[in-house]
């Protein structure tokens, strides 16, 4: 037996009691602990319930966003699926000019002018020409007596000479200069407006009218305006300057506007513009025409006759048929 046990029995009891918690303290601590545990459980449950509610609400919101995102995605896919065919069909039916220049449409060889297909083609071009808004507007001015008249250059050409003419013979036919131009001129011959169809067989680059052909058309148009202001109505090209502004697509109508800029003796200075029906400038030009000293030798060439003049009244301007005076038709 130890001294502490033998001689200090109360100390051990005190120590044991000191190390052993009392029932009341344990009870209080237990109640406090259970209360804290219960409170904690309750708070946790509430938090869990709140989290569950939040999670449920978040899930519903996420599902709504997901359904909306899926709808938008399929709407975009459907729009693209419809846009590509629509764009292709529209582009094939109405291709832009750049596409036509890079990938010109195939065109069969032009038919002979006396063939059935050639006659149909010529008839179609003539009908389109007669129905143009510009032609109808100018005819109203003619009928109102505003100082304009209408004519068809190269419509009546000597059949014995037509095969030797570039514009009236070699270039005339379906796919080329299918029909004679319609021309409106001032009665004083100060200016003129010509509407001309340029066919598919007049190209340099496929689908684009040759620049040399445009120069020929401008030279003919300028020459008509100039020659009808020279004393003998006969002249030749002394100078021709052309500025090409944009490619001229084939198989379309162009409008050539000419005017007299200066008249001095045997010299005429004229200018011209060439545009599409939509107003796009194709080219512009200036030229000088002179009446040669040997003009009398060209009086029977037929060029002046083919330019188109209004039939004069016999009482005012009789048409003389000698070698030194032009035949006015």
Automatic annotation (TrEMBL):
Signal peptide: none annotated. The keyword Transmembrane helix applies. The chain crosses the membrane at residues 74-94. Coiled coil: none annotated. Residues 305-329 are annotated as: Disordered. It comes from the Eukaryota. This is Thioesterase domain-containing protein. It comes from Kwoniella newhampshirensis.
